[in-house]
Input
Amino acid sequence: GCPNCGGTLELKAPDKTERVTCPYCNSLLDVNQGNLRFLHALDDSPADNFVLEIGSSCSFKSFADGIELEIIGAMARSVVFDGVKYFWHEYLLYNPKIGFRWLVHSDNHWNFVDSVNLADVEVSQSLIGAQTSVKFNGRSYRIFQDSPAMVEYVKGEFYWRVEVGDKVRAADFVSPPFMLSQEVTEKEANWSLGTYLPIKEVEKAFGIKGLPKPWNVAPNQPFPHTGLIKYGFLLLGVLLVTSIFLLPFTGFGKTELNQVINFNQLERPLAPRIVESQSFELKANRNVEISAAVDVRNSWAEYSIDLINEKNSDIESVLIPVEYYYGVTGGESWSEGGKTNSATISAVPAGKYKLRIEGVWKDWNQPMAMRVKVTQSVTRGVNFWFAFILLAIVPIITLFRKFAFESRRWSESMFGGS
Output
């Protein structure tokens, strides 16, 4: 019974409990081999807004071997940054088979916490404030916070002599989804490892719904869409390797026609001169590139070219303009256009073909020579780059979202600028 009000108390861990609060009179009691001694009454606190109740049971499949744990104690703690006090809650979980665990609730984010052997943590400096990172199980953790933490409120039972007002030097080191925490007092130093829990997992473990949602990024909250980045860039790698593999089969174009065609002067401006090329063979299922090279200087020429199937007279037409201008302006030379241009036609049936070329040019009263080439299996890269851009959109956008996510995370840190 409570020595202050006489209310009956049931201890969940009577052989380990050293402090307990009375739920009837809100007294903090010392436990000594089952004997209770009144210490003092606990004042109301703005931090007494726990979302989980003492006595609630939970079971996490990923932790504690899925054994059912019960909340036997709850504690509110705080830190002060820039004159502002920030609170969080810690729930003490217990099962006689495995002992104690912690569930930490901060800014509506959740962590499942277990103690860590001091010898397993690689610390480079003896002073906590001098550390920027530590190692545990081969994983590096970067410092996030380092500040005194104070107990603001307690209820339930605890396995140490907790008091409101107790202070420790607390430092958190993060490597999402984990947080490695050190608490230092004048007598000892303890390490614990927290693992980030999505809200849905906490609700499932307790069989509840409607837990408040977070409004910021937690120190060890993992970016939720890392898979989109990983698999997106993996697909880009597959596309690149596939393209390189297919290049010997599709990427080396073969010239089927290479002919210089001479055009006599035009009868009048813009009255086209028509010339036909030699016959040539084309293979099926391969694209066709037609290119024209003309020695134009500060001038232009334009060719309307028909690719004619000599067997059935089917026609594929392209327009190839060629223009090249150059000069000097303000002491600087410049140029525009080029002396060659080309157009590509998709695959045509195999067979014998010829070109019918209608040409016009600026200097119509002078003859004009042009070199025409017909090449098959030309690697244009259009399909590759279209597929590349299409596949890259999601991982690149997600990558920028990750940068923004990390920026929000470290904006909350004392060491965000480091």
